[in-house]
Structures are given as C-alpha cells and as structure tokens.
Amino acid sequence: MVNVENFGDVAVVKLNGRVDVQAALELEKEINDILTSGFSKIVFDMNDVQHLSSSGIRVLISTLRRAISNNGWVRLARVNQSVKKILKLVELENLFTYYDTIDDALKDVK
Q1: Domains of the chain
Q2: Which residues on adjacent β-strands are paired with residue 10?
Q3: Least enclosed by CB within 10 Å: which of 20, 33, 45, 78?
Q4: Phi/psi at 93 (5° precision)
Q5: In the Cβ-directed half-sphere of 28, how many Cα atoms lie within 13 Å?
Q6: Across residues 45-64, what is the average pLDDT?
Q7: What is the C-alpha separation between 37 and 34, in angstroms, rounded?
Q8: Contact at 8 Å (CB) between 71 and 40?
C-alpha cells in the first residue's frame, strides 16, 4: 500500500490501491514515522490510487497541517481523474498543489 523513497530532504510516498479505513491507518503510521524523522516536505505519488476514502483524505489533510507547521509542504503528483473527482466533490481540490510528474513536484522549490 505504501512505499517511501527519500530524495534529499523530500519524502516521496507512493500510494496504490484503495486508500480506505484500513489503509489510512497504515498510511498514518508511515507518515508519523516520516515526520518524526525530520522530513517536512512530502510528495504523494497518487498514480496507482484506485479509491480515496474520507479516512484517506483525513490523513492527507493532517499531513499537510503537520508539514506546514514544520515549515514544509505536501504536494500531490500523478493524480488520476478519479481521485481528482473525489477531492473536487469534497471541495478540497484547491487545498493541494498538483504536479504531472514526481520530478516536477521535486523541482518546484516554492
């Protein structure tokens, strides 16, 4: 469900499958480990996400809040149309910055 790679001071979290209640619990633990390890810049690779539940959305928002409080950020890369629809439906599509590729997300130094 979760695969993490580090690129300098950025953690890239590759998600896949259904990010439902059970997967969100695993993701939350992984994100906690990432943030407590000193990373505050996170890119979520959403390319292989088939479904994003409210629990998954909660983890994304929580991660964003924690990252910002540590002078970091959260970016979403390779977001497929079904996930974009879900985020738009719950009026969160403008909360995150979207990138077509992981490299684009890593290159944007804002």
Answers
A1: 2-107 (3.30.750.24)
A2: 7, 41
A3: 33
A4: -65, -25
A5: 13
A6: 95
A7: 5
A8: yes
